[in-house]
Design a protein that fits this description.
The protein is built from 22 helices and no strands. By secondary structure, the protein is mostly helical.
């Protein structure tokens, strides 16, 4: 856009930046107060939009910028994908699959020394199949934490690690969708290229949980804590298999999610996991799936509207120019990407929101160096989800600590400091992606040539 056509704000460049700065500052305050909530983040977005309205010299240009921001193709795909993924996630949860997976692993009858490994694997399976880190923690932590013989801090660390594994890798995870679509990448390509990092971190974590678990536990046998009637819900695992097959065959995300949603409905009805009235009730998988995604969609509206104003004012181009000046090489560009992801994750305290926040900037930055689009997605998601299990005011950490205290096996003084040293998967994700950026391993360019 030419300079004389740029959107004008009172206060010049500072006025143009003010809406986003207000947005960011309010999110930082919310995070600092340990009240991380998508609703509050949406309120921060609304406040930023109000500031933009007040400072915009031409109110008609402001209105057009908001409309054009909401017409963004990426935003439209994100909204549709979030809604379909929300329905599928609820189908898998409400069918009882989480309890079925927990029953399957518990039936192995391992000793307490292997409890951290069991907790890690159960959460890994649930979070990968259902695309939910907090859902996995809620399902696994109360029954597992109450089991005697294991160090509670190690067990909680293992549970959070397993939850982060799926949050980072699952095709229906909100972070996977956000990181892929903000980089104009296909989810199947993102998952495929991300898999080696997840597996390396996962295998090393599993070994560490065996070693630490045996060293810190007393000898008891794990009891059965899940009703064996849930075993039949394992049939729902056919859905992730179908998803993988369709993506490998070249289907796009939207079509794949629609097919998986429909298969989920059929399986739930045929096997009696849900009846027709429940299926179409407000709290059923369709109602809960749609409404559960409204807050993140609302946040996305404010985010894209404010970004459109930054573009129209020329501030976005100015920011990219400064980042490009600090990123003369592909390695430097990737390290800046990691730095932006760290700042966003620490400031905001929510992985998917921080990805939506920094994603557009990262896309333009890496595009300048012709770096393959899946690379930016993987760097952002690896750092953001890794920090999700470490930053104390992230919903993942808050959830784990509060449930551990509520279980009665830890004292009221239990905090993130107790489990974070044992959250091996989060630390390994951050380390692996940082080393990858420094060494260039895994870096490819749009023309298909490696660095």
């Amino acid at each position: 856009m030419e300079k004389n056509k740029r959107m004008q704000f009172y206060g010049g460049t500072l006025g143009a930046c003010a809406p986003l700065l207000v947005f960011m500052c309010l999110m930082i305050v919310i995070a600092a107060m340990k009240k991380v909530s998508l609703v509050l983040f949406c309120m921060a977005g609304f406040a930023g939009l109000c500031v933009a309205f007040l400072l915009a010299k031409n109110k008609k240009e402001f209105e057009q910028a908001v409309v054009d921001g909401l017409k963004n193709d990426t935003l439209c795909v994100i909204i549709f994908a979030f809604l379909l993924a929300g329905i599928l996630s609820q189908e898998l949860r409400q069918s009882g699959l989480i309890q079925g997976l927990t029953w399957l692993v518990m039936k192995l009858g391992l000793s307490a020394g292997f409890l951290p490994l069991v907790a890690f694997l159960v959460c890994l399976l649930i979070s990968t199949a259902c695309g939910t880190s907090n859902g996995a923690i809620v399902a696994v932590l109360p029954p597992v934490a109450a089991t005697v013989g294991a160090n509670p801090s190690v067990v909680v660390g293992a549970i959070v690690s397993g939850a982060i594994f799926g949050d980072n890798l699952a095709p229906i995870s909100d972070t996977t969708i956000a990181s892929a679509l903000t980089q104009d990448a296909e989810v199947r390509d993102v998952v495929r290229t991300r898999l080696p990092y997840s597996l390396i971190a996962g295998v090393i974590s599993a070994v560490l949980f065996i070693i630490v678990g045996i060293k810190t536990s007393t000898s008891v046998t794990l009891p059965d804590v899940i009703d064996p009637a849930y075993a039949k819900t394992l049939v729902m695992l056919v859905i992730p298999v179908i998803m993988i097959i369709l993506m490998l065959r070249g289907w796009n995300l939207i079509s794949t999610l629609i097919v998986c949603d429909l298969v989920g409905f059929v399986l739930c009805l045929v096997f009696g996991f849900l009846d027709v009235p429940t299926l179409f009730s407000a709290t059923g998988p369709i109602g809960a799936g749609l409404t559960g995604m409204l807050n993140v969609i609302c946040f996305s509206f404010f985010m894209f509207a404010l970004l459109e104003m930054l573009k129209r004012s020329g501030v976005f181009d100015m920011l990219l120019e400064k980042l490009n000046n600090a990123s003369k090489t592909p390695r430097q560009a990737e390290l800046v990407t990691i730095l932006l992801s760290v700042i966003g994750s620490v400031a905001i305290g929510a992985a998917s929101i921080s990805i939506l926040f920094v994603g557009p900037v990262v896309r333009k930055l890496l595009q300048t160096h012709n770096i393959e689009r899946t690379r930016g997605s993987n760097l952002m998601d690896g750092i953001a989800t890794g920090l999700a299990g470490i930053v104390p005011y992230n919903p993942v950490g808050l959830n784990a600590v509060s449930l551990a205290i509520a279980s009665g096996v830890v004292s009221e003084s239990f905090s993130f400091l107790d489990y974070v040293p044992y959250n091996f998967h989060s630390w390994l994700l951050i380390l692996l992606f940082l080393l990858s950026a420094i060494t260039g391993i895994g870096r490819h360019f749009e023309k298909g040539t490696a660095a």
